[in-house]
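Today's session is about reading a structure prediction critically. Students often jump straight to the picture, but the first step is always the sequence itself: look for stretches that repeat, for charged clusters, for runs of hydrophobic residues. Only then move on to the predicted structure, which in these notes is written as discrete structure tokens rather than atom positions. Here is the chain we will use throughout the hour.
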Amino acid sequence: MEAVQIGKSALDVEWRRLELIAENLANMSSTRGPEGEVYHAQRLVSGPASSFAGAMSATDALSGAPTTASLAPTGVVVLGVESDSAPPRRVYEPGHPHADADGFVEYPNIDHAEQMMQMMRSARIYEANLTALTLAQQMYSRALDLGRTS
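Below is the predicted structure for this chain, in token form.
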């Protein structure tokens, strides 16, 4: 897999992570989700596109040595989205339309500071991958220029 494809896979994963963080922040003060229950924070699970064991087990049939294709990096993928299992926070608001019999309203248990920290982290990872992608494209372009002159 080329450096550009690896960088693009990382950009795609971090973009999806940023979308989920934005969704969490947008639903932080909501009392009901789309199905009518309390919204639960979402977390993106990502990882390598191929397993380490799979890469190590791919060998050449004749020599038994690892194949160069098996040792090549494969980028990252979204493995899934997990819902936070934390119980909702209860706030005493007896006049609220969603208050229970005791006057409590359930809100998602989302930590604003943690979500903002995750957003900054993901934005920096996205920026670093964008820089690496730009550098790889510049190197490819320079190699083409060198090939034309020789």
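Discussion point for the tutorial: The radius of gyration is 23 Å.
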